[in-house]
Amino acid sequence: MKPRQAILLGIYITAGIAFSADRASLNKQGVEAFNAGDYRKAIACFTDALKLSPGDQATANNLTAACRSLAAEYAGRGDYANAVQVLREGLSLMPQSSLLRGDLITASLNHGIACYNTRDYVRGRQVIAEVLQLDNGNPAANRLAGDIAYAQHDLAAARTHWQRVLAADPANTVVADRLKRLQKEQGVERTYSKMEAYHFDIRFDYRTLGNGVIDLRAFLMEAYEKVGRDFERFPEYPITVILYGENEFREINNVPGWVAGLYDGKIRIPIDFSRIPLATLKGIIFHEYTHALIYDLCGAACPVWLNEGIAMREMNAPGLVAIDVLRKALSSGTTIPFDRLNDLTGVWRNAGIAPLAYAQSWIMAEYLFNRWSNNQVKNVLLRFKQGVSFGTVLREAMNRTPAQFEEEWKAYARGRL
To answer: Are residues 27 and 66 in contact, defined by beta-carbon separation less than 8 angstroms?
Structure first.
């Protein structure tokens, strides 16, 4: 859902007809301020004029135009909170204004989207609740309200809002698919317990984990501190972590047997203490938490190979890296070409190629950290969020082309392995 700025239609301004000398003077001052772009002063003048003549439509039109213009100015800078405040105050004075009501809904939606994108879910939920008070059936507001509730793992509320969207638009296949998945999740998690710990909202099946959840909670807290120190980043919003039984993890997430965890806005990990020892689970937790932190830094803009490579490095479990597969590929010249390393379907979801992809991404990330400090890597991630490509970063920071980088990480790998 992309942010939209309020669209101002039919703005006009007039000095109107004078009912008194004071009102005429205020209206004149307001017009002059409006024409000079001083919308705050214009609003103050028109507000005072309207209080003197509450039924004067010309003054109401002028005040509406000034409120909408100031709100648009705020929205143009991405300051939706102040845009909303201006429109809310204007609507309180002119509750019948459809223009202010429409702009308020649009600005509030944009504010809600901004809150969602920055993980300020509590504020986002409050903002969208105000939109729904103005227009309870608004599909965009219900879609966003559902997304925020789902991010907070309030599955019941998410279902309610998404059902409203589907009722208004039965052809919306995206929301229909989300509801199908949500129904599965609610079925699986109906008996799950909840544990809050140190910026984590942990959901788990006590029958599967028992007191073992205490160890997993400790690993999460350790990952928060250790990976956070590496990147000087400590998210303050709660991160949802769902610890499944093995079969439930596969059923809900539709992933092959070799996938040991995933991050899709929530950390999801299958737990089988009889098959996977605690030391391995610790590495998996570090790996998935690293994905969460990278997303916090640059959203979905990080190249897949670098995202996975950094996560492999942070899990600090060389035994889980397919070193022999990597050595063989280096020796035979069959490493995965650089331009294929972002191919999710052909590489990362291919059981025959994925072990090499993980190992190769790990050593490539190791090479970058050998050349750059943790802070420099963090800055690279932040550049991705600005839309800068890895190729551009290479040229600016290392004076290298992707082809040169590929030769250099291979040389580094042969020397290290």
So the answer is: no
**Cβ distance 284 to 305 under 8 Å?**
no
* Contact criterion met (CB below 8 Å) for 27 and 16: yes
pLDDT(1) > 50: no
Evaluate if residue 306 carries a pLDDT over 70: yes
| CA–CA distance, 119 with 49 (Å, rounded to integer) | 42
- Per domain, the residue ranges of the chain are 21-135, 191-295, 302-417
Residue 344, token pair as written in the block:
């999710």
- With 60 as the cut, is the pLDDT of residue 17 above it? no
Measured N-to-C along each axis, helices 21-35 and 39-52 cross at an angle, to the nearest 10 degrees, of 160
Both tokens of residue 113? 């989207």
What lies within 8 Å, CB to CB, of 314 at 6+ separation is 223, 226, 227, 230, 286, 287, 289, 290
Q: What pLDDT does 256 receive?
A: 79
pLDDT in tens, 307-343: 999 999 999 887 889 999 999 999 999 999 998 999 9
Q: What is the pLDDT of residue 14?
A: 47
Q: Which CATH architecture has domain 191-295?
A: 3-Layer(aba) Sandwich (3.40)
What are the structure tokens assigned to 65, written together?
Answer: 């135009």
Strands 239-245 and 267-271 come out as parallel
Amino acid at 344: L
d(CA 417, CA 323): 8
Residue 3 has pLDDT above 60, yes or no: no
Find how far residue 172's CA is from the centre of its chain: 22
Measured distance CA(37)–CA(400) in Å, rounded: 49
- What pLDDT does residue 319 have? 81
Please determine, for residue 211, whether its predicted confidence score (pLDDT) is greater than 60.
yes
pTM comes to 0.86
Instruction: Fill in the DSSP letter of residue 299.
Output: G
Q: Of 39, 95, 41, which is closest to residue 67 (Cα–Cα)?
A: 39
Q: What mean pLDDT, rounded, does the chain reach? A: 91
For the domain 21-135, what is the CATH superfamily, name and number?
Tetratricopeptide repeat domain (1.25.40.10)
Q: Which of 270, 287, 262, 256 minimizes the C-alpha distance to 350?
A: 256
Alpha carbon dihedral 400, 401, 405, 406, in 10-degree steps, equals -160
